[in-house]
Specification:
The chain is α/β, with parallel strands linked by helices and 193 residues long. It is built from 6 helices and 7 strands; from the N terminus they run βαβββαββαβααα.
Length: 193
């Protein structure tokens, strides 16, 4: 399988959203930029911020859409077209209600599971054939509380767990960039990073 050429962190722009659960995707790409020395800059043609990083010896574009979560697809599509990258060479990083804090999972293809950034990207592309990194944020236990939950900040304990899962995912990322998704998944999913 082809490796990764684009990593998109999903989130909402603005300081009021910075540390919310919904911004786990932004948090991941920010951590990745810190680790690789990449610097984000505003990129109006891509409706977001972009950076170029070197991961596992390969150049990879990083993107943080500034469109708000519900319109993420606009930014993703612009980046794919501009950099001539296939959806299959793309990783979308997002918060995941169905996983507890401290757990991160890689996946290829599938539906959106109610995640609005995925929903819009699938709508714009017409399919879901891209990689996902699901960062667990836990579930409030009642579907009527989900909006407040994702837009709220994690407890101190959950925040530590989310940070740990991001570190675990960063450890296996070079494997995914090189196209060895099976090994990356095995290590991430069994905790042997």
């Amino acid at each position: 399988m082809a490796g990764l050429r684009l990593i998109v962190g999903l989130g909402n722009p603005g300081p009021e959203h910075a540390r919310t659960r919904h911004n786990a995707g932004f948090r991941f790409v920010d951590a990745l930029a810190d680790k690789t020395g990449a610097r984000f800059g505003i990129d109006a043609k891509l409706f977001g911020e972009s950076a170029k990083a070197e991961i596992g010896g390969r150049p990879v574009w990083l993107l943080k859409p500034a469109t708000f979560m519900n319109l993420s697809g606009k930014s993703v599509l612009a980046a794919l077209r501009f950099w001539k990258i296939e959806p299959e060479e793309t990783l979308l990083v997002h918060d995941e209600l169905d996983l507890p804090p401290g757990v991160a999972r890689l996946k290829f293809d599938g539906g959106h599971g109610g995640q609005n950034g995925l929903r819009d990207t699938i709508r714009v592309l017409g399919h879901g054939r891209f990689h996902r990194l699901r960062i667990g944020i836990g579930h409030p236990g009642d579907k009527n509380k989900v909006t407040g939950w994702v837009l709220g900040r994690a407890s101190a304990g959950d925040d530590v767990e989310i940070a740990r899962s991001i570190d675990d995912a960063l450890d296996v990322l070079p494997l995914a960039v090189q196209g060895d998704f099976n090994e990356a998944m095995k290590r991430l999913h069994t905790g042997k990073t």
